[in-house]
Amino acid sequence: DKSDKTLVDTNSSGDNRSSVLDRVDSTESGEDGGGQGLSWSRVNSMSIKEWDIPYEELQFEDRIGDGRFGSVYKGNWHGDVAIKMLTVDSQQTDQTSQLQAFKREIAMLRKTRHENLVLFMGACMNPMHLAIVTSLCKHQTLFTHIHLRKEKFAMNRIIIIASQIAQGMGYLHAKGIVHKDLKSKNIFIENGKVVITDFGLFNVTKLCHGNRKGEWLSIPPGWLCYLAPEVIRSLQAFNHMDLPFSKASDVYAFGTVWYELLCGEWPFHGHPSESIIWQVGRGMKQSLGALQASKDVKDVLMSCWAYSVDERPNYSRLLKTFERLPRKRLARCPSHPIQLSRSAES
Ligand code: ADP
Ligand code: MG
User: Fold this and answer.
1) Alpha-carbon distance 84 to 133, whole Å?
2) Is residue 67 lining ligand 1, measured as CB closer than 6 Å?
3) ipTM higher than the 0.90 cut
4) pLDDT of residue 125 exceeding 80
5) pLDDT (tens digit, 9 = 90+) per residue, 301-344?
6) Minimum-distance ligand to the CA of 134?
7) Is the pLDDT of residue 263 over 70?
8) Which atom from ligand 1 is nearest to the alpha carbon of 70?
9) Ligand 1 atom closest to Cα of 65?
10) Which of 60, 61, 68, 72 to mutate to test the pocket of ligand 1 (most atoms within 8 A of CB)?
11) pLDDT higher than 70, residue 57
12) Which of 84, 151, 172, 183 could form a disulfide with 132 if both were Cys (CB 3.0 to 4.6 A apart)?
């Protein structure tokens, strides 16, 4: 009986989630209906069914766009929602374990309740129609503000936006969730409020079409500049997307968003992918010579982009830094013409 399926939440750090969910999965397959698992579940459990949205209940409206996972639709399910349909790769050999990975990632999402994180509402777990349903963001992404509309933000606004991103990210990390895909396209500005999307979903892309060409990972444009050196270095050895993402690699990506806010463009703007991989993998950073900003502002970049994982700050430290920053000056990169980089735009 499906209603017996439970997800046991024993440890909010998330470190135990595989073993806990393996237990759920083995319980599902009838291998372990044992008493210990059930007593856990009595204490602290959540039925996966609560998050399973029947596909038939979703009303699809316009297609908003396509991304790494598949298509995103505006839809209706008890009001406006965003429906992220995952295109499942039928060539994929290990679909069962990947469906379990999907369920694991969904199980993490349900723990997220923060005003700077998109509201996770549920998922369709039918293997034919895998979809994630979240609240609909009605405004623009930070990417659109910065790279398409070419808006310039005053320092005051930059600090408010960065602080809200840091608050949402700090919350995720406290819950043991690594975002793995923090970028300006996954940050909406809804009436001045930051809403971060797509956290913890990166591994779901294992289920999807179009991310691999043979043994090679195809690199989406505009993605490389968010990848920490340790992630870049393992791109070549890429194996089933097991890239070494961590809280520290999320902080590196945050550094890139901070740079975008300050400069209106991506670091390594205009450089070909091979050159970015070569430079970042060897610990080189975007030069800040042209950035007219205080040392404290630049130090945020340098510390987030530190080559050594241990040297990168955590979000509470970043938030303390932001509280101290003077808010008056407009940060500018005058010598960098603000234009879209073909290599970084999609
Ligand atoms: P990417 O993040 O690379 O843009 P996605 O698959 O996440 O790719 O998104 C595809 C499109 O759907 C983008 O235009 C994105 O802004 C939009 N989108 C994603 N999530 C939401 C949401 N919750 N509300 C509104 N639009 C969204
Ligand atoms: Mg996205």
Assistant:
1) 6
2) yes
3) yes
4) yes
5) 999 999 999 999 999 999 999 999 987 755 556 544 433 333 33
6) 1
7) yes
8) 6
9) 11
10) 72
11) yes
12) 84
187 C-alpha to ligand 1 centroid (Å): 9
Between 100 and 309, whose confidence is greater? 309
Catalytic residues: 181
| Mean pLDDT within 86-110 | 75
Ligand 1: which residue has its CA nearest to atom 3? 67
320 vs 18 pLDDT, higher one: 320
Top-confidence residue, 9 or 233: 233
Report the separation in Å between the CA atom of 264 and the middle of ligand 1, taken as the mean of its atom positions: 20
Q: Is the CB of 62 under 6 A from ligand 1?
A: no
- pLDDT value of position 34: 40
| Residue 97 token pair | 């374990």
Full 3-state SS string of the chain: CHHHCEEECCCCCCCCHHHHHHHHHHHHCCCCCCHHHHHHHHHCEEEHHHHECCHHHCEEEEEEEECCCCEEEEEECCCEEEEEECCECCCCCCHHHHHHHHHHHHHHHCCCCCCCECCEEEEECCCCCCEEEEECCCCEEHHHHHHHCCCCCCHHHHHHHHHHHHHHHHHHHHCCCCCCCCCHHHEEEECCEEEECCCCCHHHHHHECCCEECCEECCCCCCHHHCCHHHHHCCCCCCCCCCCCCHHHHHHHHHHHHHHHHHCCCCCCCCCHHHHHHHHHCCCCCCCCCCECCHHHHHHHHHHCCCCHHHCCCHHHHHHHHHHCCCCCCCECCCCCCCCCCCCCC
Confidence band (pLDDT; 50, 70, 90) for 69? confident
Distance (Å) from CA 110 to ligand 1 centroid: 19
Question: Could you tell me if the CB of 118 is within 6 A of ligand 1?
Answer: yes
Kindly tell me if the per-residue pLDDT of 140 is higher than 70: yes
139 CA from centroid of ligand 2 (Å): 14
